[in-house]
Design goal:
The structure holds two protein chains of two kinds. Chain A is mostly beta strands. Chain A folds into two domains: about 40 residues, Single Sheet (Ubiquitin Ligase Nedd4, Chain: W), CATH 2.20.70.100; about 45 residues, Ubiquitin Ligase Nedd4, Chain: W. Chain A has no helices and six strands. The termini of chain A are close together. By secondary structure, chain B is of the alpha/beta class. In chain B, the strands form nine sheets. In chain B, strands 1-25-21-22-11-10-9 form a seven-stranded mixed β-sheet. In chain B, strands 6-16-19-20 form a four-stranded mixed β-sheet. In chain B, β12 and β13 form a beta hairpin. The longest helix of chain B has about 35 residues. Chain B is globular and about 80 Å long. Chain B starts with 10 loop residues before the first strand and ends with a strand. Classes of the chains: A mainly beta, B alpha/beta. Chains A and B meet through β6 of A and β2, α2, β5, α6 and α10 of B.
């Protein structure tokens, strides 16, 4: 199973591009830190069946529309989990 | 050499004591607001691609659709997909983007400026002079600015950080807008204006600071919260559906599309609000702390309600106006969207809650403090030249207090007293406060304003209610604005007088007339004109001697007399106004076609009634384009020095002056010294060659001393400028008007200007505002400064701006407060439009400059706005330090 970072966790609350807060512990976390035992995948394009990676940080949504792996897709009507956790 | 007893600081009166005097004691803010502010202090300006990605994706899907519908659908997609973020302890939710200080690029306006330097798009922008101002702007190095790229974060414009994961998509999305953005389309067609090359030369030389059509097309205006407060979102949608049925198939079909577009956009806002409600429910589900859990739950219920219905309480109403404020900020790159007279708008809700025991004063104060933090979190994504050189990172959300009610009586109320109190306890840059001074305002209210100004917040700025109303009736009278309507006015942006309207808010069967903005951006057009540089170009017969490029053709005057010099300046100034008015009109036309305002239009009377958006003159008042100036005191002082030394006393020929200016009077340039105030400049070995002419230039009469020799020149300039501005016609075929604020442009504009005949040295920052004296030259005390500043009628201009710096000891205690209020009154009674203060010991600012980390929360007043010291560029920091510090009044 691939490593999950804090920025990819559904409990990650972004403060800025350098730091965030954990929604559970309320503690400050770094987005690139490794997730903890409570981490759960956030809804992001890279976890979606409709996303195809093409090159670093870029890909396609449903094989036609430009997309990027790290985008939050929490409100995307097309999102389908590849594998939830 | 220029020296004072205390090196590098200009004093009026006596020298201060040995130790640095602190400002008067501040009162502490509520624990909740304090926590929020600490989080703010830790946060950096951050940008993300979520909104622009979905906006662009939907826009592309709707190729061929009616443009305003396409725009509405794109906005709906952007809002609907924003990730909701709610921070612990928040009682007012929602923000621009998924970061605390979040913002995002809007490539549909302009796609080139944030591209990497090697990118072709960036190079093209640079060649047309659009980015020259960026080169001469210094950004603040501390606070929340991401000044350099580090690790997985890339710095854009020296301020915004973007994660490396989002950089490729930013470039890809930006490229999709090439030749389609407002910037590109406007540029394509502005080149058809005869004499266009002159416009590019003006931009390259930074005689003009920036184009307004695609940089900040909205703002410098007052929002209007009436419709959502009265009808709720569902009420407005129902109204639009009725209007649709009434106009469908009839002539003037644009109304049909406008109503449909508003409905689509509002559906997007509903989704956005409900997404936040859903997040609040999620947080409720995982929260262990019972109090916090209850607050999340209440937040979810409130947001659900507001997504459809009008507010029930003060808390609902405050949350609702915040939501609509952010919504408008998300539809365009905007600075200066003023909330206006919030203390009037929300008073009926607050009064009812107090009466019914729903809220008490302590809770109200906490809520208002939290509102201050939310407004302070607002960032505007723009290029370095705009965000640094003009805005200094500020976004100018001006909240006005005082002024008049509809019937002309005092508008001050208890809620406005609490707004002032929150400004004291929670001293943050936003929203800045402006007190609309009128003789009938109660003494207690005015003293509260003084108390707030005294602690060093820089706010409230003190504004003349009557002078503003005189300007409004004069400027908008032909559109039907009368004295009663003029009383609904407020400041839009930092200092732009903006018309308003009285709207009938019905609550429990009672009508409350609440004021709100009823015009589009009141400060778009020719932005800003560098007055000392234009004089320099006149002296060199059309050449920019810094770049050796020709700006204008020869003016043809021999300059044998002062009158010829004045005429040559007027000729070049008029040429600049002519070409820049036309090119900006083209850009704004591109803006209204490609990116029409929907949210702001929906809010502004009478767009819904007319079925027309702002760009189609849907607003009640539309005479809103202006010509902005910068460097007034330096222009006037330079003209006075030449009049005296060349044309009256004939101490020097004009050629000798030209040589002295090119030699920078024998000093190093500001860029060489890295310091931007005159007092800090360093002489070269050639200094003695120019010592005498420099001394006589410095000793020539200076504005701000009640000296008729120079004040007459000031009056001549003002009378001419305020009249000639009306000769130019806006996109809406209305006469334009003079606007005289410098914001932060006096930094970069000074940086590109050679030494001046007034003795100012090359590259140093100009005087701020328009009636502020040049630092260190106001030697006859504040009342002499007031006489000079009011030598012309301020009601002829959208504004004037006077900055003063006073040592804290001078206004200390109750006696100090009374003395301070009398000083303010004296100026406003003379007809001054605006005065604002820094109450600070300049030595503290010097310390803060060398040790910024210790001064993260230090606030200063710049020119129409308050900002954290550490977020200001050095050009502006040096100018604020150099301002004359009054040790006695």
């Amino acid at each position: 199973m691939e490593e999950l970072f804090c920025k990819d966790c559904r409990f990650y609350l972004p403060v800025d591009v350098f730091t965030g807060l954990c929604k559970i512990s309320k503690k400050s976390v770094i987005p690139d830190d490794s997730g903890c035992e409570k981490s759960e995948k956030s809804v992001k394009c890279k976890f979606c069946m409709n996303f195809t990676s093409e090159r670093e940080y870029l890909g396609k949504c449903m094989e036609s529309t430009l997309a990027y792996p790290d985008m939050n897709a929490i409100k995307c009507e097309f999102f389908k989990w590849i594998e939830r956790n | 050499m220029i020296t004072t007893k205390n090196p590098h600081i200009n004093y009026y009166g006596h020298q201060p004591g040995e130790s640095i005097e602190n400002r008067e004691q501040k009162r502490s803010l509520s624990p909740r607001a304090n926590t929020a502010r600490e989080l703010y202090f830790s946060a950096k300006s951050s940008t993300s691609m979520e909104f622009p990605y979905w906006y662009t994706r939907r826009w592309e899907e709707l190729e061929g659709e009616i443009p305003i519908i396409r725009r509405a659908e794109a906005l709906k997609a952007g809002f609907s997909h924003l990730t909701p973020v709610i921070y612990p302890g928040e009682i007012l939710a929602m923000g621009k983007a998924a970061f605390l200080r979040g913002s995002y690029p809007m490539p549909w306006l302009s796609e080139a400026f944030f591209m990497a330097a090697e990118d072709k798009l960036y190079k093209e922008a640079q060649e047309s002079g659009k980015l020259t101002a960026d080169t001469f702007t210094t950004m603040g190095k501390g606070g929340g600015n991401v000044t350099t790229s580090v690790g997985k974060v890339i710095s854009i414009a020296g301020k915004f950080g973007i994660r490396v994961e989002e950089m490729p998509i930013m470039l890809e999305v930006a490229k999709k807008w090439k030749d389609k953005s407002v910037d590109d389309v406007g540029h394509k067609y502005e080149q058809l204006v005869p004499g266009y090359s002159e416009k590019e030369a003006l931009m390259r030389s930074v005689i003009c600071m920036f184009d307004s059509g695609y940089t900040l097309p909205q703002g410098r205006e007052v929002i209007n919260y009436y419709y959502p407060l009265q009808f709720g979102i569902e009420g407005i949608i129902a109204n639009c559906k009725e209007s649709t049925a009434a106009v469908a198939g009839y002539p003037d079909m644009d109304r049909l599309y406008f109503f449909q577009a508003v409905i689509i956009m509002l559906e997007g806002l509903q989704k956005w609000i409900r997404n936040y409600a859903e997040e609040a429910r999620f947080l409720t589900s995982i929260e262990k702390d019972e109090k916090q859990k209850a607050e999340y739950s209440e937040m979810a219920e409130r947001l659900d309600w507001i997504s459809a219905k009008p507010p029930r309480t003060f808390h609902d109403a405050l949350q609702m106006i915040w939501i609509f404020h952010v919504a408008v900020l998300n539809e365009d790159a905007i600075s200066g969207l003023s909330p206006g007279r919030v203390g009037q708008v929300l008073y009926p809700f607050w009064q009812r809650d107090i009466k019914n025991g729903i809220i008490n004063r302590e809770q109200s104060l906490e809520m208002l403090e939290c509102m201050r933090i939310k407004f302070t979190e607002i960032d505007c994504f723009a290029s370095m030249g705009v965000v640094g050189g003009v805005l200094s990172g500020n976004t100018f959300n001006n909240l006005c207090i005082g002024g008049s009610l509809k019937d002309g009586t005092s508008a001050a109320n208890e809620l406005e007293m609490l707004i002032l109190e929150a400004g004291i306890t929670c001293d943050t840059p936003q929203p800045t406060l402006s007190l609309l001074y009128d003789e009938n305002l109660p003494e207690e209210f005015l003293l509260k304003g003084v108390e707030c100004t005294k602690i060093g917040t820089g706010y409230p700025a003190w504004i003349n209610n009557r002078v503003a109303m005189e300007f409004l009736v004069s400027n908008y009278g032909h559109e039907g604005l009368n004295m009663e309507e003029a009383r609904a006015w407020a400041i839009g942006g930092c200092l732009e007088t903006s018309p308003g309207s009285w709207m009938p808010l019905e609550l429990d069967g009672e009508i409350h007339w609440i004021p709100g903005g009823s015009a589009p951006a009141t400060s778009v057009g020719v932005h800003f004109l560098n007055l000392p540089k234009l004089l320099e170009v006149a002296l060199f017969d059309g050449m920019d001697m810094r770049t050796s490029q020709r700006i204008f053709p020869s003016h043809g005057y021999a300059l044998d007399t002062y009158e010829e010099l004045w005429k040559s300046f007027q000729y070049y100034f008029s040429r600049a106004c002519h070409i820049l008015t036309l090119t900006n009109n083209v850009q704004h036309d591109a803006w209204r076609k490609i990116s029409p305002s929907l949210i702001n239009s929906m809010l502004k009377p009478d767009c819904l009634a007319k079925g027309k958006d702002i760009g189609q003159m849907g607003c009640r008042y539309n005479t809103t384009f202006n010509i902005e100036s910068c460097g007034t005191a330096n222009l006037v002082n330079s003209l006075a020095a030449l009049k005296k030394n060349v044309f009256t006393e004939k101490n020097y020929s004009l050629n000798e002056y030209r040589k002295a200016l090119l030699a920078n009077f024998g000093y190093k340039t500001a860029q060489e010294t890295g310091s931007y105030s005159l007092i800090d400049q360093v002489p070269t070995e050639q200094y003695h060659t120019w010592k005498k002419i420099h001394r006589q230039s410095l000793d020539a009469p200076k504005f701000g001393n009640d000296d008729p020799f120079v004040d007459t020149i000031m009056k001549d300039w003002e009378d001419w400028f305020c009249d000639m501005a009306h000769n130019y016609r806006s996109l809406y075929d209305q006469p334009m008007y003079a606007c005289q604020i410098s914001v932060s442009t006096h930094g970069p504009m000074g940086a590109v200007t050679l030494a001046g005949p007034d003795g100012r040295l090359s590259g140093t920052t100009f005087s701020d505002g328009s009636v502020s004296a040049y630092p260190g030259t106001d030697k006859n005390g504040p009342y002499a400064l007031f006489n000079s500043a009011t030598c012309w009628s301020h009601s002829k201009s959208q504004n004037s701006q006077l900055n003063m710096k006073i040592h804290p000891s001078v206004v200390k205690g109750r006696e100090g407060s009374r003395k301070f209020l009398e000083l303010i009154r004296a100026y406003l009674r003379k007809g001054g439009f605006h005065v604002q203060f820094n109450i600070v010991d300049s030595r503290m600012l010097k310390q803060a400059q060398s040790d910024p980390e210790k001064y993260r929360s230090l606030l200063v007043r710049v020119a129409g706005f308050t900002q954290y010291w550490v977020e200001l560029g050095k050009q502006i920091q040096d100018e604020v330090i150099a301002r004359t510090e009054y040790e006695e009044l």
